[in-house]
Amino acid sequence: MSRKYQNRKLIEHQNRSELQYQKSAYWLFDTLAKGQLVSLAIAIVAKLRIPDYLQKNSKTIKELAEFTNVSPDALYRLLRMLASVGIFREINKIKSKKRRNRNNESKCFGLTPAASLLCSDSKNSIRDFALLFGLDSFNKATINLSHAIATGKNSFKYANGLELFDYLQQNKNRIDAEIFDNAMNALNASYVSSLVQSYKFSQFETILDIGGGQGLFLANILKKNPNQLGILFDLPNVIRRAKRTIWADTQKQSIVKINHSLISRCKLLGGNFFNAIPSGADCYMIKNVLLNWNDESAAVLLRNCLQSMRKGEMGHVPSPSQKSRRYPKLLIIETIMPEGNGPFLGKFTDILMLALTSGGKLRTEREFAELLDSCGFKILNIFRPPGKVSFLSIIEAVPKEQT
Fold first, then answer.
1. Distance of CA 276 to CAs 17, 172, 206, 305, 308, Å?
2. Domain 3-120 carries which CATH code?
3. Listed residue (140, 127, 213, 156) closest to 353, CA to CA
4. What is the secondary structure of 341-356 as a DSSP string?
5. What pLDDT was estimated at residue 2?
6. DSSP state of 335
7. What are the start and end residues of each CATH 1.10.10.10 domain in the chain?
8. In the beta sheet, which residues pair with residue 109?
9. Helix (H/G/I), strand (E/B), else coil: 287
10. Above 80 in pLDDT, residue 22?
11. Per CATH, the architecture of 136-402 is what?
């Protein structure tokens, strides 16, 4: 092999290495530059209701700035950045370069499919979820993530003085609490239809939704199954908000249309699932709850479920029939963390749990099995929705003595 050939191969290798470095460096610079800016920018335009103003037609920066009482130049730069990632699009209405006005106030923007999801009245709107990323309390926690990494303790309490759920129960933080509840409703709305349609909830007579928030998911299940009963169980302040919103008879703009029949089939109970859980259901449903707690706290909740199941009473719901399965079934509806290095949204959610909660985390299938086994349950089946219709799985479990 000639020296000339060897030199050429060495140069080619060096060029490839340099190109790979440039690609990797560009990706890293790009990621660092976007980072939290994109989520914060989305929260800002959601709060300003920019997508709502653009629903019927495109508008100039001047019009949008007047509607929202913000700086025209700053707004243009914000929308230009979001347009670069597919949220909004800048529209050039003046084709002639000679007539083009260089003033940013005259520039127009319109909606894209992604921006349409931020409209407050669009189907499956995620506007309320986007607002969560604009809360000072939320951002203080993520900015102080290094504290959580260094200590293993959540940065929310470090930055805000209280644990997340204690913070949300404070009267002075009621706006944050409402935004949080609405964000969870928006998250529910994004997958509720696919889960209700794909899983056989009709097998149950009475469903107890533990930590069910304002009850959007339970309401949709009951709506599809007219002979079914429900119990919505959450903290008293959450239940009070549920009665004012989703379960209010007169709420005309509710996320799900609630009629009198639906309300009469469901009890709304306030309490603390770490103290006790109501009896009287053949389905104990825990959806997006366990990820908020460490294994010790999650075990308290699961053991309380087991104790309630063993009581086997029908005291909380006026059941038309006393027929119920001898041992109720436990449904855990959560994201299951996969093994390996592949991209997965849950890996980012898991870091949010690290920052926001006291030991909360996403669990692998093995971790769920070990946790349930330690609390007296055995997994019967794990239902994973086909394709990418939902990132949630349904774990079916029963008391060990039933198996």
1. 61, 28, 18, 8, 8
2. 1.10.10.10
3. 156
4. SS--HHHHHHHHHHHH
5. 67
6. P
7. 3-120
8. 59, 90
9. strand
10. no
11. 3-Layer(aba) Sandwich (3.40)
